[in-house]
Structures are given as C-alpha cells and as structure tokens.
Amino acid sequence: MTRNACNCRGFVVVVVSVVVLWVAVLLHHLENSDQGYLPRMTQDLQTLKENYKAKNKTCFILGASGETGKVLLKELLQSQLFSRITLIGRRKLTFEDEAYTNVVQEVVDFEKLDDFASAFEGHDVGFCCLGTTKAKAGEEGFIRVDHDYVLKSAELAKAGGCSHFNLESSKGAEKTSNFLYLKVKGQVEADIEALDFVRYSIFRPAMLLVDRKESRPTEWMARKFLSPLSHLFPTAITIPINFVARAMINNAVIDVDNKVEILENKAIYNLGQLWENETK
Predict the structure, then answer these.
(1) Contacts of 183 (CB under 8 A, 6+ apart)
(2) Residues whose CB is less than 8 angstroms from the CB of residue 259 and which lie 6 or more positions away in sequence, other chains included
(3) What is the number of helices (H) and of strands (E) in the chain?
(4) If DSSP codes are grouped into helix, strand and coil, which group holds residue 205?
(5) For a FRET experiment, which of 31, 123, 202, 226 has its CA 20 to 30 Å from that of 55?
(6) Domain assignment present for 6
(7) Would you say residue 225 lies in a domain?
(8) What is the spatial distance between Cα 242 and Cα 62, in angstroms, rounded to a whole number?
C-alpha cells in the first residue's frame, strides 16, 4: 500500500469518526433537551382509570383508519374507559374482531362538515389523529386536511359538547416555521386553542416507528436507519406508535390544572411507558 493510499484511508477514518461523534453528541442533546410538559399523577394509574371509567364518558376518534388512529382504537377498546366510542370518517371501516362490534361509525363528507354536525354531538372527549402528507395530497390537499378539516371538526366538537380535545400534532410544530408541514401543524394548534376547550391536549411526537401498509420509501429508509439508534436514544428523534396512543389514553385520565397542555416527545414516551410498567 502506497503512502498516499494510507494517508487517504487515515483521512477517511478521521472524517467518519468525527461524523459519528457529532451525531452522537447531537442525539444526546436531543435526548436530554426535550423535557416538555408532563402531568403529575396524584394516584396510581390503575386507580385513575377505574375512577375515570365510573364517569361513563364517551369519545370520538378522527382518523381511525390511519396508523395512530388504528392503534388508539385498539387500546381504547382494551382499556374499556369509555361507554361509547364513535369513529368519524369519510368511509365505514370493516373489522373482523368481535371487540369492535359496539363501535359506532359516523360517515361524513369533510368538504361539507356543517351538514354532519350531529356526528360530533354528545361526546365528552375527542381524539384527532387526522392527517395526510404533501406527497400524497399535494400542498393544497395537505393544508385542507391537516388544517381545515381538523379545525372545522374541532369547532363542531366544541359546539356538540366536547370538553377535552386531544390533537396529534408533530415535533417541531410552529406556525411561523419556514417548513410547510410544521407551519400547518403549528397553525392548527393555535387555531384550536382559540376555541377555548375546557381541556386541550397537544401531542407532538417525533418520527413514528411503525410499519405502514402504504409505501413511503423515504420514511421506510429513515426508520431502518433510525431504529437501531432508538435503543440508545429512545426519545431523541423517534417514538413507537403504540406509545403515542397509550400516552393519549393515560393522559386523559389524569387530572390536570393546565387548560392547555403541550406534550413533547419525551413526555409522550414517558406517559406511554407507564402503560408498559402497569402490565408487567
């Protein structure tokens, strides 16, 4: 091996080492900087759930056909916290499991939601997991779904008696962002806050670790790369999708003083982990 080749190889090793070190430092920073809001429990989780169940509350889910919505529905049925669960969507979903037999389904036209106001009436709690992507729906379609449909649904839910609205948003959501996705997410967060719900919970998860049925090559590659890192830095840039659903449920049964609460990725992870600890 020539001296030039050795020098070149040594240079590559140094560059790779610097990059790896830089990534590790960045992930460590993200892991420890994302504290966020975390509700404080005055009782153990099981007691809180039993007390909540006794209140005979009802809920609806927007986006139950999506990845988070599907997991949320499954976990809600398992928990039996609500006396009635209603799915509000553009089409009726089919289920084979008997556990889904008593789930109510309301089919609506999101372009004419005012005509379907009755679908949003009579629910104490709303879970919104509705959303699409710019790649799938185009820029206008993305804004229409992730902002207009979501906001109008929240307005109808408030008018229909919903007191606690839960919104699945995104890590980094900010209405002044230069990135369309984060800007739209931040804007709808703010617009729903203005509706003045009795309680408004915003969940900002990082990249969801989930095997989607639909094809998203870029996201698939990112998950394959990031999954191993998630074991070392579990809340820096990823989160298991079931933790998001479980955090939404756990958070609902906890009494809080905050009228508006923003749960960042680490808070979501910690709340979701409570479920794991409870079942051990």
Answers:
(1) 174, 175, 176, 177
(2) 197, 198, 199, 200
(3) 9, 9
(4) coil
(5) 202
(6) no
(7) yes
(8) 17
Residues 120, 157: contact at Cβ < 8 Å? yes
Q: Where are the alpha helices (DSSP H) in the chain?
A: 3-33, 45-53, 67-79, 134-143, 150-159, 180-193, 217-232, 241-253, 265-278
Q: Is residue 3 part of a domain?
A: no
Looking at per-residue confidence, does 229 or 122 come out higher? 122
Number of domains within the chain: 1
Query: Any residues with CB less than 8 A from the CB of 213 and at least 6 apart, and which?
Result: none
Q: What is the mean pLDDT of the chain?
A: 84
State pLDDT tens for residues 248-264.
Answer: 999 999 988 889 999 99
Helix then strand then coil, % of the chain, to nearest 5: 55, 15, 30
231 with 190: CB under 8 angstroms?
no
Give the domain CATH number at 79: 3.40.50.720
Residue 10 pLDDT exceeds 90: no
Given this model, what pLDDT does residue 197 score? 98
pLDDT digits (tens, 9 = 90+) for 169-217: 999 999 999 999 999 999 999 999 999 999 999 999 998 887 655 545 5
Rounded to two decimals, the pTM is: 0.83
Q: Which residues are catalytic?
A: 181, 185
- CB-count burial class (<10 Å; 0-12, 13-18, 19+) for 88: buried
Element (H, E) at 200: strand 199-203
pLDDT exceeds cutoff 80 at 141: yes
Q: Which domain holds residue 72?
A: 34-278
**Domain-embedded: residue 14:** no
DSSP state for residue 41 in the 8-state scheme: P
89's tokens = 């969507």
Burial 238-273 (b: 16+ CB within 10 A, else e): bbbbbbbbbbbbbbbbbeeeeeebbbbbbbbbbbbb
